[in-house]
């Protein structure tokens, strides 16, 4: 239920935010590791409540490696409440680690970002907001994974909000949104059956493809527009393979069940940009 592959991506994006911040400050390895120690249990708790909230739709849909939940409850026969009961102590571990970090130098800004990730992550799935059930799931998830997460990584080093990191992550955030259009596509019928309001349950395939293409183009335009002022040219050049994959993703979107092409575009951008920023710090 913890979805290890997603946790690995969380670590990558957290690190990416920190690397961007390290262009202006020196590495604080203890804070970097401390922030991650607090983040991972919080992220696991978010996954658990998502498994709890999506139990019905996950039981109805046909899973792919990137959609339909983990399938852990369905495979093991464990009750739905197991995920809910597991989420609370896991969140408690994250909160305890965060308090320890504050006692050893974390700022209130850094703690606030982690708290925002926890609150929005839970409210994505469960009440009182249950954002994904009310039509705000894609935007919320993109903001969490594309902006708040790297901002938290940067704040672990700077102790403050970084406008530079926020701007630099706009292209990635847009591809996260594209990825969500794709990962929600295979579950659209199951989601509609249980009343879960995602964009693929409300829009037809033509409109979804237009949104997929438009967001991908906007991500590329944003990348080019930020090059030289916020994003170094080397990082932009390193990002090119992700947009090659994104073209393939558009061609396959709504024409195959698996969201793999769109997932691959998003992950490729995260990997390539991390490599680019890391190279700049090393030279």
Characterization of this structure:
The chain is mainly alpha-helical and 283 residues long. The protein has one domain: Farnesyl Diphosphate Synthase, CATH 1.10.600. Helices cover 76% and strands 0% of the residues. The chain has 14 helices and no strands. It has helices spanning 4-21, 29-53, 55-60, 72-76, 80-103, 108-125, 137-158, 163-168, 170-184, 188-194, 199-202, 205-226, 233-252, 260-282. It is globular, with a radius of gyration of 18 Å. The termini are far apart. 48% of the residues are buried. The model has no long low-confidence stretch (mean pLDDT 96). InterPro entries: UbiA_prenyltransferase (IPR000537), UbiA_sf (IPR044878), UBIAD1 (IPR026046). It is a multi-pass membrane protein. Pathway: Quinol/quinone metabolism; menaquinone biosynthesis.
Descriptors:
283 residues, mainly alpha, Farnesyl Diphosphate Synthase, 76% helix
Entry summary:
This protein is mostly helical and 283 residues long.
DSSP helical segment count: 14
Largest sheet: none
For this structure, the CATH topology is Farnesyl Diphosphate Synthase
- Shape descriptor: globular
Give the structural class: mainly alpha
Low-confidence stretches: none
* Share of residues in helices: over 70%
**Structural domains: how many:** 1
Return Rg in Å: 18 Å
Number of strands: 0
CATH class: Mainly Alpha
Strand content: under 5%
Mean pLDDT reading: 96
Name the helix and strand elements from N-terminus to C-terminus, one letter apiece. HHHHHHHHHHHHHH
Q: Give the name of the CATH architecture.
A: Orthogonal Bundle
Q: Kindly, what is the distance between the CA atoms of the first and last residues, rounded to a whole number of angstroms?
A: 40 Å
């Amino acid at each position: 239920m913890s979805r290890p592959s997603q946790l690995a991506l969380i670590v990558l994006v957290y690190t990416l935010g920190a690397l961007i911040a390290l262009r202006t400050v020196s590495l604080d390895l203890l804070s970097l590791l401390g922030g991650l120690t607090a983040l991972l249990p919080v992220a696991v708790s978010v996954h658990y409540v998502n498994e709890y909230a999506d139990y019905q739709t996950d039981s109805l849909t046909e899973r792919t490696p990137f959609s339909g939940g983990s399938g852990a409850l369905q495979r093991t026969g464990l009750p739905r409440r197991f995920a809910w009961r597991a989420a609370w102590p896991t969140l408690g571990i994250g909160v305890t680690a965060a308090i320890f970090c504050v006692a050893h130098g974390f700022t209130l800004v850094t703690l606030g970002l982690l708290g925002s990730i926890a609150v929005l992550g839970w409210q994505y799935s469960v009440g009182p907001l249950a954002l994904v059930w009310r039509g705000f799931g894609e935007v919320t998830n993109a903001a969490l994974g594309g902006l708040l997460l790297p901002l938290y990584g940067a704040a672990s080093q700077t102790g403050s909000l970084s406008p530079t990191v926020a701007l630099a992550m706009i292209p990635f955030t847009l591809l996260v949104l594209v990825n969500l259009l794709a990962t929600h596509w295979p579950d659209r019928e199951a989601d509609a059956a249980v009343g879960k309001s995602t964009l693929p349950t409300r829009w037809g395939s033509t409109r979804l493809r237009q949104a997929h293409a438009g967001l991908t183009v906007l991500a590329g335009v944003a990348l080019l527009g930020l090059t030289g002022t916020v994003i170094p040219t080397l990082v932009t050049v390193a990002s090119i393979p992700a947009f090659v994959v994104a073209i393939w993703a558009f061609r396959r979107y709504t024409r195959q069940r698996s969201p793999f092409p769109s997932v691959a575009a998003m992950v490729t951008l995260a990997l390539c940009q991390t490599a680019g920023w890391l190279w700049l710090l090393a030279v």
